[in-house]
Fold these 3 entries.
Entry 1:
Amino acid sequence: MKVHVDMSICLLHGQCVIAAPEIFSFDDAGGLVWVAEIDEVQAGDAEAASDACPEQAIVLG
Amino acid sequence: MTQDALADDTLPFLDVADPKFSIRSQAVLDARDASWCARTSYGLAALRYDDVQKLLRHPKLRQGSYRWPAHNGVTGLFARWWEAMLLSQEGDTHARLRRMANPAFSPKLISSLIPKFQALANMLIDQFAAKGECDFIADFTEPYATGVICDLLGLPFERWRELADIAGEMGLALGVTFKQDLPTIEAATQRIFDFAEELVAERRARPTEDFIGMLIQANADQDQLSDQELLDMIVLAIFGGIDTTRNQLGLAMATFIETPAQLTLLSERPELGRAAVEEVMRVRPTVTWVTREAVEDFIYNDTLIPAGTTLHLFSQSATSDPEIFPNPGFDITAERKPHFGFGGGTHHCLGHFIARGDMTEALKLLAQRIKNPRFNGPVEWLPDSGNTGAIRMPIAFDPA
Ligand code: HEM
Ligand code: SF4
């Protein structure tokens, strides 16, 4: 499964980092980084993060 | 050299503890022109868009209301709950509680409630539509905001008054007379926990896939969400969802009364309902500021913010900042940068899908069924700071 964040609408709330810390994190400069390609076992976490994102900026495919 | 902000008397001062203080006053606009922050009776206030946005997720700040009961010398049931609940938690505990609560607040679950919100709004409007007048708060926003929580909890609408009364009495804890009102607050807290316990017992006996059902599923693993944390979360949803929504919808009506062409536009183009909610929350957020506290000394904008400083992030002044919003007038068709009416960062409102969904339906239906609304007597307002809104709003209108 592919993970993408639309950075034009992401407001860096960090709700994805709370929901799925293995996929999303903040780098030292405070920017959002994520694992772009995940396996099936992580799909549930990715969906939880996508649901939790207040801006609905996470696209899974 | 960096100055200690609290001692910097070149910074403007705002007396935010004065009940007559208004977050929309000229003093705030002048302060925002002069500086990114002001000194206040409690600490500091951030006034501009970019700073509020950055500070909402600044790692050196924590949510700042957790000490409110201790600050008032209050202990007991309310204080225990307040200090334990999600909003007062940070770091790992906050993240765990939030992860456990997320499924109950997911957009999928909430969108299944939309037809219920529509039915509720129509039922309430039916009761006053023919009269051509109502108290918009007592007759609409209060029963609506509470009815939405009944829908969320899977309770019949008939229980709304009971819930509204409990939430109102518990809400006294946020006021300046916290200590005098303590017996009332403690009794209401006991009632709300009895209520939550009853609800959980019922759903354990007959499992559901709804809001309470989701929380009960999370509670299956006691290390992730204990029985006490489950009840604390249900109480927070009741407490945090009622007055906010009531106030925000009252502010919406006041804004439309002041700019009637926008209401006509919404009645012609109901698809603008969601945009109307966002625009109302930009110009008149009920939560006019959020409170943060510095966990250690840090430097921001060449200013030293000492550990323990209370910082109020002024959502209201940030989203009318002319630097960011050159045409700041109320316009539901304008493309806008995001508002801060639901806060931001780790404590971003957990109930925002519910609030956005229910307010969109309410505004769409009101625009269709109530024409030419106007004030029909004096409006009673809460102070124009902190969590603001109307508590009485007589209106007259032409039935559609
Ligand atoms: C128009 C209605 C609402 C407004 C304006 C609003 C506003 C806010 C704001 C500004 C915060 C952040 C406070 C801070 O950072 O200090 C917040 C947090 C929260 N809200 Fe809302 N809210 C609304 C409706 C709701 C509803 C309907 C619910 C639940 C059913 C809810 C549940 C919560 C919870 C649980 C938090 C704490 C989140 C955390 O600490 O992680 N809210 N809300
Ligand atoms: S939750 Fe959404 S808005 Fe927040 S950081 Fe993650 S992707 Fe961005």
Note: The first strand of chain B starts at residue 3 and ends at 4.
Entry 2:
Amino acid sequence: MKRFPRSLGFDRFSGAYMLGAFVIVFSIWKPSLFATTATLHSVTADKAISGILALAILVPLVCGVYDLSVGATVNFATILSVLLVKNGWSIPLAMLIAVFLGGVIGAVNGFIVVRLKVNSFITTLGMASVIAAVQVIVTHNQQPLPPNIPIWNDITQKTVLGFQVIVLYMLAIAFVVWWALAHTPVGRYLYAIGSSPEAARLSGVRVDAYSWLSLIASGTIAGIAGVLYGSLTGPSLSFGGGLLLPAFAAVFLGSTQITPGRFNVWGSVLSIYVLATGVRGLQLVTNNVQWLDGMFSGVALITAVAVAVGRQRSADERKRRSLSSTRQLSAADA
Amino acid sequence: MTVSEVRALDVRALTKTFAGGRALDDVDFAIAAGEIHALLGENGSGKSTLIKVVSGFHRPDPGATVLIGGQPLAFGSPLASYELGARFVHQDLGLVEASSISDNLAFGPGFPTAFGTILARRAHARAARALEQVEIDIDPDALIGSLSPAQKTGVAVARALLAKGSASVRLLVLDEPTARLPEHEVVHLLALVRSVARRGIGVLYVTHRLDEVFEIADHATTLRDGRRVASKPVPGLTRHDLLHDLFGAALEHPLRMPSAAGQSPLIDADGAAAAMSGPVLSGALLSGAVLSVALLSVDGLCSEVLREVTFAIEAGEVVGVAGITGSGRDALCATLFGAGRRDSGVVRVNGQPLRRARPAEAMAQGVAYVPAERKLQGAFMDLTARENISISNLQKLWRWPRLRRRQEGQEARRWFDRFSIRPNGAVEQLLSTFSGGNQQKVVFGKWFQRQPVLFLLDEPTQGVDVSAKAELHAALFEAARSGAGVLISSSDVEELATTCDRVLVLRSGRIVAELRGAEVSPHAMSRAALGIDHQEPILPQGTMT
Ligand SMILES: Nc1ncnc2c1ncn2[C@@H]1O[C@H](COP(=O)(O)OP(=O)(O)OP(=O)(O)O)[C@@H](O)[C@H]1O
Ligand SMILES: [Mg+2]
């Protein structure tokens, strides 16, 4: 008996089937608008940043730590990198500094959570507010103009096989996070801490160090996402907050996919695109109403958590029924 | 119809199938009002599952009926079960650690309120009365987390018995209530159970301690692989009858019950024994103290008090720790390992001093620690058995660029075979789907895999059935023979008497007696633990037949 049957069953890939269903329905409904490669390319690129942000949230969540500050971090990293470039810094250095700053924010979060023992939810909620304030100080609330350097945009917008290269970056980051979580001791330790911090400590896991590390990782990944956003879309003072909820929705929805019951990388990435496809399709059908994204993500987040709870029961129930029926058959034979 | 004519519990054609297989298969049985009914069976035989069906936690397969006090139970509803008068003390107690005793007592029947406001004083008084009933002397405002396992069991019993309005209690179910209780508290509990039964309440009593069956049960039902294999009145039964019901033909090769280190190897020849003398052990000195403790003190703010505890364990020695609840017994192993803080004293493992509160460093010196609280401290319920076993040993499985998953699975399966963990080879199942005793064996697998030089064991065989207990003990003796030291802290004095070369008895945080060789007997331990003059002649243990 395997816990994760290597099947393409609905229980592990309901998201993929849902994605298929969205594509079919909207293609029939709005064939000229929806079923185009342009839509495919734009959805994948648009949501790459959300995907990276979901990965940032995922890492600490595996060990039971919430990072709500990634929305603010991603925003600040965008602004900072753009400002530095416009002030004549070299592009790689500007990017490196912005990413590093993301890591520093994560380290500070970690210090507060691990050393001062403040609940992670509170810590990162407060930190988000602080970062937003610092951003106002730095920018005087003036949205900087995008740097007028072609290479700056090429970093993310260059196309490879029709897709913007940002999609590849996202996949590369996903690959690294997947490797770290699923194939290294560090990942195991994080899952163990998420399961029971005390049992982890008594099994020799350095709980504090790894919790801290997970927040540094999330800050750093958010920093990367911010820099890429600056190149992809240009600076904005307020986009970060809006990405937070969809990212959380994707991570929780992702925990019902592929390895149900566990936060995982590919489930999260899949879910980002399931949600994005649903939203894009509905936008086309409803002529771009503004509230769709928020409504869809909010409902998805709540549904995902409800589904995760309900699924275990139904899986048991199904198996039980099939075993019961075989028992009746063998009883009939006898 | 009077209460006594109605059966407390009547179970018919009960089958329960999980994703992994069938846990209960067409089980029938009944408990009369006022009867104490023992439910027996090996680890994983389905006892807890049966209880969880009656409590409304699990929904059985179609076709089953359960009557509580003559009324049919609507399955899958804990509330329905409660309202029919069934009360439960589950194997894992189900207390909220972060809340006080009086809050925990109020979670079931509700808080006393006036206009929606909790009447704290009344709740407190009610809790105090309930605790008095079970003869526990603690402040009802104490947090559950600060109690010893024994005290927690008492609170869970008190909560189960609390009346709510007019709903009368028909059935009290106790799932291994004595698994972690010291002998004199077992006596209290049994007396309490008897008085409950005298009130006309049917009692379902699950235990692995066969002696208790003869002491209190009127009737005994035995499960094997989810099937009812026997249901007999206790008067007239012998211990051998029970063992036969429990293990069937497997009993033909007699139970392996070694008494001390230095016996012939009891380990199967499949190489598991070889693992016991791995690299860590060969580096250890085969003579000299594996563990030496000098003037260890703990102030008792977060745990029990320890005062200037000083002792040593030689290589190859199995040493026991006895003592009543609150004596410091519960704190000793945890403090040595670094799970809890110590205030002063020196702890050395093979001569190396251990810094306080550093479990990872203790492990690096070859120390293993099995905590008493399996669910919270000992294991990861929502990880797989494989991941539970490998967690302390991941560095060995790591070869750039990834963990060797196959090797990890093989290793886990090896421990499944070694300790006969059921279901057989199900290393990919979540730990929460294993029975209590099998979970404990998984925890043992995790530590044995590291080939420790020092075992610190708190209630090591809690919830483990008679034959598996013997297997675990045999494994410990084997480790001791190859030079490891073993420290067993247990509320089960019988267990200490059968396994230990030497027993330290704690009282009020101090070592008050050290029993060796022939002095190591359950009576001597209990007497020293309670502070009864131990000049009195030590009576030979009465044997059960
Ligand atoms: N939620 C679950 N999902 C799958 N299998 C389960 C689940 N709960 C129990 N089982 C299986 O059902 C069987 C019976 O387990 P149960 O807990 O009833 O045993 P038990 O008799 O109480 O044993 P113990 O003495 O060790 O406590 C075991 O094989 C166990 O693995
Ligand atoms: Mg059980």
Note: The pocket of magnesium ion (ligand 2) is lined by residues B 47-48, 91, 175, 435-436 (CB under 6 Å).
Entry 3:
Amino acid sequence: MELALKDISKTFCIKDGPVKALENINLDVEKGEMVCLLGPSGCGKTTVLNIIAGLEKPDSGGYAAVKDSRISLPGPDRVLIFQQDALLPWMNVINNVEFGLKNKKFPRDKIRPLAEEFLRMVNLFRFRDSYIHTLSGGMKQRVALARALVLNPTVLLMDEPFSSLDAQTRELLQDLLQKIWMITGKTVVFVTHNIREAVFLGDRVLVFTAAPGRIKKEFRIDLPRPRSINDLRLAGITNSIRQEIKDEIDLAMRSETDNE
Amino acid sequence: MFYAFILVLWELLFRASIWPDYLFPSPAGVFSALVKGIYDKTFIIGLLVSLKRILLGYSVSLVLGVVLGLLLGSFKVLDDMAGPLLLGIRTLPSICWLPIGLLWFGLSEKAILFVVIMGAAFSIALATDDGIKNIPPIYLKVASTMGAKGPRRYLTVILPAALPSIVTGMKLGWAFAWRSLMAGEMLFVSLGLGHLLMMGRELNDMKQVLAVMILIVAVGITVDRAVLGKIEQQIRKRWGIISLET
Ligand SMILES: Nc1ncnc2c1ncn2[C@@H]1O[C@H](COP(=O)(O)OP(=O)(O)OP(=O)(O)O)[C@@H](O)[C@H]1O
Ligand SMILES: [Mg+2]
């Protein structure tokens, strides 16, 4: 198994006392699979990714493993792509893409060509010398994608990477991600709020309950690839999932607002 | 506009002859003293001597300050122990270091440098410390997931991420350093601008005193605005920090 989560729970201790964010998460992801995690705000999706990335430790009893070795620390075999503004603004585009390779002590003469290859893949080769503050939000996320992929991670973790983009850019990037995923065959865990996005991208969609997060339901999306965002079957599946998780969203809305 | 008004007011007060000429010179008189000083090279030499000193003292402060700040920002124990002490020391006017400097180094170049370094290094250290503590957590997560460890983590992520704050500290440090240098130079035959100021006093030459003062202010502002201010602006722009000041 490429990635396995076994009985993962996570309790945060804050000054008001313990907060249970995750409860008994079990998940197996196969090589080359794209799994989408869907759930209301605050249900612990980011926490799951942080645990896989090694940035956060699960409560004792559970564990996460990549290729059968238990995860304890962050490492370039599990790269996390954030929602926004995670590029290093003191480096230009190409240096951002080269950053992880340089840390890894990759053979010097191979770094530049490899970084350029991945910039071409996200159609940003022309902007290799640009500084980050001159890029649009969509361009930044494409650089982040190239920066992650160039490390050839075993698992690519994406935390709502397109949620701060406008609808049009978002669709373009969803298409690009699908294309790149089909070429590279990466194992991906993709977190989103957006049901349609999850259905478009995922081989499987896992729906979380409101906090504490548990996996409530699993949907296998058997549409052929490449998928089109305008596919009617996609809209159909999206609607049926929306219906099923409506209760969960209502519940989350109520717990996040003050009026009882 | 405002400055023109001041000049006019100055000229009017001068014309009114309330105070004698040698205590209250005219703007034109001060200006000619400035030109004369530049022509006979005394001001130029004074300027160069002071600039050389400040360059040396400020560079040492910068290195010391950043290293100290890095240590404080990286080890919480150190920060807890030394942080309050440093805050206390920073409120001390830097000229208060002079007696120690004089006792340790005598009436010499070294004593002046000591005062300059003490004046600037602590503000730079505190700003560096502060900058490190306030690094957006996302940069640290990126450093971890991208495998930046050890010295590389400091050089490629932590220091650059703290740089906006460090530069702000450098501006503060500069102001302290320049002031303490002038104070130090006034104490003995140091040949710098501070010394020229004292010479003006001894010769009862108000024109020279004012001319040198203008020069001191000019250097102070130029470095603050034109050099450090520009760097600060550039960095904030590129780092994507929206500046609140206009
Ligand atoms: N470092 C932390 N310290 C304390 N509590 C935390 C911490 N990180 C997350 N939490 C809590 O854990 C719960 C889950 O947070 P998480 O960020 O994983 O949710 P999420 O599903 O990613 O939400 P969103 O969709 O809004 O990003 C929340 O209740 C949050 O307040
Ligand atoms: Mg989240």
Note: Residues 54 and 178 of chain B are 7 Å apart (CA to CA).
